[in-house]
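Example record

Each entry pairs one chain with its bound ligand, magnesium ion.
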Amino acid sequence: MPEIQLKGLIKRYGNFQVLHGVDLTMADNEFTVLVGPSGCGKSTTLRMIAGLESVTEGEIYVDGKPISTLEPKDRGLAMVFQDYALYPHMNVAQNISFALRLQKVAKTEIDKKVKEVAALVGLTEFLHRKPGALSGGQRQRVAMARALAKDSDIFLFDEPLSNLDAKLRGQMRAELAIMSQRVQKNMIYVTHDQVEAMTLADRIVVMNGGYIQQQGSPEELFKRPANKFVAGFLGMPPMNFLDGEIEQRGSDTFVKGDGFDLRLDGEKAKIAAKHTSKSVTLGIRPSDLDYTQNAPEGQSLTLDVLVSEYIGAQSVLMCNCGSNRVTVEVNSETPMALGETLKFEVNLNRVHLFDRQTEEAL
Ligand code: ADP
Ligand code: MG
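Structure tokens for the complex follow.
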């Protein structure tokens, strides 16, 4: 299985620079997800790998060999797009086998391959149907099967689930995860959806504004975001950000802002005490606040509960903390009235601190 490497990849359309020197290594047999907001350059990166866009500067290597001058068809890649681009007059089997038939592969071999990939994506019973008689999810599977039939070592996906409704998207996401374990190929998957990224990826690459912000395992990025952008992008509901100042009182280190005064703990306190700039942004995930009637001083936020959104097992509370908005995720059994002022204990082991100027994690 080949390794893919991007070195100093730059893309300009006229004077408009989309990518600012992307360096990235995607290891063998890895499911890499490029995630970031719309317009950050994900598709451009993927299309450059596929050979559908030219490289302005830098190089793309597959197994150490530069490929940026090769034709798309000579790159040994298979790509699945957002709009599946199926041939409406061909049935499922013919759609899946289209590329193989062009390559004049023997009929018995084609039949075998079609059966194999159709089984893999759960299309065995639909081989004789035309795309018009399939659901959105089934069409998506045909597009997937067609890519798999090509026997490439590298698969590129550009937002393949974004045309599906929420429920189907969830199902297909799970199926894709199962399929990727079975086929053991190198997959590069582009999405703006952080849930897809978190659930599918071996490695997440977070992009913003044509730059890579951070890369690592989903857990690494969730637990140790390198900056405020990554912290706010991954996780639902998003992390709360509260501006404050670091204050040293005797041997204790506090972070104090409008409506809160928290005593930092352990490693966080040491790092904060040493940091040169005292202006920080405190990051607290909504799940790291626990409702409690007697939270100790310096370890809790006092919040005015404005709205409660019931979402099943959990409820999401929108609250005020001084002039800050704070979101809290609680067990929906928690008795709670709107308009109440309540205390929530902060899980101080899991708070994040960012330099307010650079937005880098402390
Ligand atoms: P993403 O896939 O992350 O949403 P894209 O890679 O499609 O973003 O686009 C990145 C930026 O490049 C956007 O600002 C987009 O408008 C611009 N862009 C994409 N294709 C072209 C093009 N052919 N000409 C000019 N600008 C383009
Ligand atoms: Mg895109």
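Residues 137 and 168 are 7 Å apart (CA to CA).
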